[in-house]
Design goal:
Layout: H1 3-20, H2 24-27, H3 30-39, H4 44-48, H5 55-71, H6 78-86, H7 95-107, E1 112-123, E2 127-133, E3 141-147, H8 148-154, E4 163-172, E5 178-187, H9 190-206, E6 224-229, H10 234-243, E7 249-254, H11 262-276, E8 282-287, H12 301-308, E9 314-318, H13 326-330, E10 333-335, H14 338-475, H15 477-482, E11 487-489, E12 507-511, E13 516-520
Parallel strand pairs: 3-5, 6-7, 6-8, 8-9, 9-10
Antiparallel strand pairs: 1-2, 1-4, 2-3, 4-5, 11-12, 12-13
Length: 526
C-alpha cells in the first residue's frame, strides 16, 4: 500500500467533508481509501470495482480521486493527465470542476503549519470556526475550521488574541471561500504559552484532575522504578547520583523531553510501561529546568491524560524549584527537581534502615538483660532441683524395694497357677481328640450310605427314562408316516380330521414321510 498516497487521499477527504459539512466517513470510509491506495485504479471501471464506490459516489468524487492517483502514477504521466482533464485550452470548466481541481491541488500540499493571532471565534456544540490574522499586519486573514475531537482538546487555546501555530490542511468551500481545516494548535511565544498554561490548568482543574482523592498513593518503599526521561540529559545523572545504593531496580524508558515529538514520546512511554511492566512500584518522570517553551510537552493535555489514566503511581521531578508544570499538578507525587525525586524515594529507605537499627539495639539490650536474669534464676533453680531430686530418690527407693518384694511373691503365684492351667488344658485336649475321632468314623459311614442310596435312585431313574423313550418312539408321527400314512392340512395349515371340513376346489397340503404334496380337492365323500 502507498502510505503517502493514502495520506493525500485522507487530506482530500477532510477538505471534502469540511466543504459539505459532513462527517469524514460519509465521504469515504477508511477501508475504502486504503483499498484505493493499494489498488491504484486508473479508470472508472477499476474505481467502481472497489467496495464502497457506487455511481453516485463516482459522479460526485470520481474525477478528483483519479486525478490524485494519476499524480502519483509511476509512469510519470500523472501531472500531464491532471492538466489534460482540467486545464486544457479547449476545456470549459464548470464551477464545481474548478473548485474540485483547486481542492485536489491544495490537498496535495498536505498538512501546513501556520502562525497567526486568533480572532473572530464562533464556537458551536460539535465544531468551531475562527479566524487567524498575520501577527505583523491585520490585512491578511484566513478562515479556520476545527471539528469535535480537536475542539475538545484545544478549546482552552481558541481565544481571541492568542498567538498560535496551527497545523491544518488547506481547502476551498463550494462558495469559493478559502479555508484551513485544523488538526493541531500550539501557543506561540512566552505570553501565549503562559496564557495557554493558565487556561489548561483551569480546564483540567474543573475536570477533577488535581483532586487529592483521585491521586494514587506512592508505595511506602519503592524498589522497582520505571524511569521516563532522556538518557542523554543531566536529569538522569542527578537522579541516579542521589538515589543511593539501596537495591533499587531502575528501568529507563528513553524519551524526547523537548521539541515537537516530546509530547507523543512521553505519552507513549507512560502507556508502554503500564502495559508491559505492570509490576513496577512507580513511574518517575524527569526533566531538567527550562523556559515555558522548553517545558511545553509537560504542559500538554495529552501528557496529563496519560498520567491520570496510568495504573501505576507517577512521581514527577521536572525543572527547578520554582517551576510548576501541568504534569506536576496531576502527578500522584510532585518533587521540585530530579534530585528531589531521588531524595524522596531514598529517604523512605533510609528511614526504614535507621528504624531497623534502633530496633536492633533495643532488642540486643533486652536480650542481654534477659540472659543475666536467667543466669541468676537458673543457679537458684539448679540448687533447689538437686535437693528435691535427692529427697525424691530416697523416698521412691524405699517404695520400689517394698513393691519389688510384693512383685516377686505375686509372680510366684502366677507361675504356679499357669502350670496348673497348662495341665488342665492337656487333659481336656486328649479328651476332645478322642471324641473328634469317633465323630469322624460316624461321618464316613454316613457318607458311604448316602452314595449307595444315590446310585440306587439313579439306576431306577435310568430304567424309567428308557421305558418312556420307547413309548415316545411309538407315538412319534414320523414313525406312522414311515409305515405309509400321511397327514392332510387345510389352507389354514390345520390338520384335516373330517371330510366335512373341506369342499371341492379347496387346496390341501399333504405331508408324506419324505416331502410334501399340494393338491386340489376334486371330490368329497361325507
Amino acid at each position: 500500500m502507498d502510505n503517502d498516497l493514502l495520506q493525500k487521499l485522507k487530506s482530500w477527504r477532510a477538505n471534502a467533508a469540511n466543504l459539505e459539512g459532513i462527517e469524514l466517513f460519509r465521504v469515504f470510509a477508511n477501508k475504502t481509501l486504503e483499498n484505493i491506495a493499494e489498488l491504484k485504479p486508473s479508470n472508472k471501471e477499476e474505481l467502481m470495482a472497489i467496495k464502497g464506490i457506487k455511481d453516485r459516489k463516482f459522479i460526485k468524487y470520481g474525477k478528483e480521486i483519479l486525478a490524485i492517483i494519476n499524480k502519483y502514477d509511476q509512469s510519470g504521466n500523472g501531472q500531464e493527465e491532471i492538466e489534460a482533464i482540467f486545464v486544457s485550452p479547449n476545456k470549459i470548466l464548470s464551477v464545481q470542476e474548478l473548485t474540485s481541481f483547486i481542492n485536489s491541488r491544495l490537498s496535495a500540499l498536505g498538512s501546513l503549519m501556520v502562525r497567526g493571532e486568533i480572532t473572530e471565534v464562533s464556537p458551536y456544540q460539535r465544531f468551531c470556526f475562527f479566524t487567524i490574522k498575520d501577527a505583523e499586519t491585520s490585512d491578511h486573514t484566513i478562515s479556520c475550521f476545527i471539528s469535535q475531537p480537536g475542539l475538545a482538546r484545544f478549546s482552552h487555546l481558541i481565544e481571541t488574541g492568542m498567538e498560535v501555530v496551527i497545523t491544518a490542511t488547506p481547502g476551498l468551500y463550494k462558495s469559493g471561500r478559502f479555508n484551513l481545516t485544523v488538526s493541531n494548535i500550539e501557543p506561540y511565544g512566552e505570553g501565549a504559552l503562559r496564557k495557554a498554561f493558565e487556561a489548561l490548568k483551569k480546564k483540567l482543574e474543573a475536570k477533577g484532575y488535581f483532586d487529592l482523592y483521585r491521586k494514587r498513593p506512592v508505595p511506602e518503599f519503592v524498589r522497582k522504578i520505571g524511569l521516563i526521561t532522556s538518557e542523554s540529559g543531566a536529569a538522569i545523572r542527578d537522579f541516579r547520583t542521589n538515589l543511593g545504593e539501596y537495591g533499587f531496580h531502575v528501568y529507563l524508558k528513553d524519551v524526547r523531553v523537548e521539541g515537537d515529538q516530546a509530547e507523543a514520546s512521553i505519552i507513549s512511554a507512560i502507556r508502554w510501561i503500564n502495559k508491559r511492566m505492570p509490576d513496577l512500584d512507580a513511574i518517575v518522570l524527569l526533566r531538567g529546568g527550562g523556559s515555558l517553551e522548553n517545558l511545553k510537552a509537560f504542559n500538554s493535555e495529552g501528557v496529563a491524560d496519560a498520567i491520570v489514566t496510568s495504573r501505576l503511581p507517577v512521581v514527577t521531578g521536572i525543572g527547578h524549584e520554582r517551576d510548576y508544570t501541568i504534569a506536576d499538578f496531576v502527578a500522584d507525587q510532585r518533587c521540585s527537581t530530579p534530585t528531589a525525586a531521588a531524595v524522596f524515594i531514598r529517604t523512605r529507605h533510609e528511614s526504614l534502615i535507621n528504624q531497623l537499627a534502633n530496633y536492633n539495639q533495643a532488642v540486643y539490650s533486652t536480650i542481654e538483660h534477659i540472659i543475666e536474669n536467667g543466669k541468676i534464676v537458673l543457679a537458684d533453680q539448679e540448687s533447689d532441683l538437686f535437693t528435691a531430686f535427692t529427697d525424691l530418690t530416697n523416698r521412691y527407693r524405699i517404695i520400689i524395694e517394698r513393691m519389688a518384694g510384693k512383685l516377686q511373691t505375686g509372680l510366684g503365684k502366677i507361675f504356679d497357677n499357669f502350670h496348673n492351667l497348662e495341665q488342665s488344658f492337656n487333659n481336656s485336649f486328649h479328651k476332645y481328640e478322642s471324641v473328634i475321632q469317633d465323630q469322624a468314623h460316624v461321618l464316613d459311614v454316613a457318607i458311604l450310605r448316602s452314595l449307595q442310596l444315590i446310585e440306587r435312585k439313579f439306576n431306577i431313574g435310568v430304567g424309567r427314562l428308557n421305558v418312556a423313550q420307547t413309548a415316545l418312539v411309538s407315538l412319534n408321527p414320523e414313525a406312522v408316516l414311515k409305515r405309509g400314512y400321511s397327514i392332510a392340512f387345510g389352507s389354514d395349515n390345520k390338520v384335516l380330521k373330517e371330510s366335512r371340513n373341506i369342499t371341492r376346489g379347496d387346496i390341501v397340503n399333504i405331508k408324506l414321510y419324505r416331502g410334501k404334496v399340494r393338491s386340489v380337492v376334486d371330490k368329497v365323500e361325507r
